[in-house]
Amino acid sequence: MGATAMAASRWHRCQAACVSIAVDLSQPSDQAMTAALLARLMAPWPQWRTHWNVWHAWPLGAQVLLLSVGSLCGVVAGSLWVSAEAWDQWWHAQDIWRQTQQDMDLLQRQVQQQRERIAKLQAQPHPAGFAIPAWQAWPDELTPDHRDVLQAWLHWGSSHGLVVQAFKTEEGKASGSWTGSLPSLLAAWHGLPGAVPRMAVTGFDIQTLLDPPSEPASPKAMQLQLQMQWVVLNERQPLSESASKPPSVWRVQSSSMVHDPFAATGLKKALPWVALPASAHHLSSWQTQPISDMRWAGMLANAHQRWALLQVQGQVQTIALGDRLGQDWGVVTGIERDHLRLREWVADAQGKWVSQARRFPAVDPP
Predict the structure, then answer these.
(1) Residue 165 vs residues 111, 150, 158, 264: alpha-carbon distances, Å
(2) Any idea what DSSP says for residue 326?
């Protein structure tokens, strides 16, 4: 019995010892397994350090995964950046269209108002009573004489179907233009002295207006523009005084008559001396007058010849190439649109005769 009790006690001690050993060994076994698992997972990855071989030390799968994620993020970011404006326009398309329609309606209303305003201005008469648009301004201090002459000039040009336009009206002088066909201009020009007797033309310039390129085959006649300058003469003396004088007083020699550039005889007189008879080779008194007493009036030209028009002693004279002019035996060597060139002979400081070139007028005419 004692042996049995001793054996039982041993068995209990052994069982207790075994249990205690098993419990003691199980706890370090779990920790060892966890440490071994972590060591196996972290073994292929390098330490975090700044070295260019770090990326190549990563596993191939990690490299591919990282590159794929980076590429996908770059594509998404680029797409969003590029298409942001398009998305914004699509999102606000209705608002933009509505604003555009409002702007178009506003502009159309403004254009319509401007057209109505222009129509009202065109329908209004000119404050000065002229047959011209109402917005063409004139000086308030226009004298009655200038007003009468200007009205007569405008009416005379309009009656011949010309487009009349006055440029400026100053004290003592004025300027304007007629635009139309050549027959209309000739008819108005020939009748101007009788229609406006107090109007003295001091200069004119005629030029061709080019047709618009949009109508190349238009049968419309060639349009010419005649620009002129004039002064208003004083009131003429009563006819009773002129009737008391003999007719010979008012008779003017043909060589000193005012030159009419549109008359056949006037153009013949303007031809060079070589085209005239020998008896016509003489100098007129006005050709030897000082250049300072002359005034530039205009220029005529065709395809073969040019003529300069000079105002001398209240008359318009014709000058061609080779004519004598001035007090220094000047010879006309060239004629331009606004001046002519002379070759003169003058005495220098040593008393020798030298040739010099001169431009008349010295500056551009106003």
Answers:
(1) 27, 10, 10, 29
(2) T
Q: Which fold has domain 257-366?
A: SH3 type barrels. (2.30.30)
Predicted confidence (pLDDT) per residue in 219-271, tens digit: 556 788 898 888 888 765 444 444 444 444 444 444 444 445 565 555 555 44
Region of 172 please: left (phi>0), alpha (psi -120 to 50) or beta: left
Query: Please, are residues 325 and 332 in contact by the beta-carbon 8 Å criterion?
Result: yes
DSSP assignment of 197-259 equals TTEEEEEEEEEEEPPPTT-TT--PPPEEEEEEEEEEPPPPPPHHHHHHS-GGGG---GGGSPP
Record the tokens describing residue 298, joined without a space.
């205009």
Domain 110-210+221-234 has CATH 3.30.70: yes
Q: Are 131 and 154 in contact, with CB atoms under 8 Å apart? A: yes
User: Where do the CATH 3.30.70 domains begin and end in the chain?
Assistant: 110-210+221-234
CA 184/CA 179 separation, integer angstroms = 9
Pick from 341, 304, 366: nearest CA to 175 = 366
Rounded Cα distance between 4 and 200, Å, is: 169
Burial-class residue 297 by CB neighbours within 10 Å (0-12, 13-18, 19+).
Answer: buried
In whole angstroms, what is the distance from residue 162 CA to residue 74 CA? 76
pTM exceeds 0.70 for this model: no
Tokens at 232, concatenated: 């208003």
Domain with CATH 2.30.30.830 in the chain: 257-366
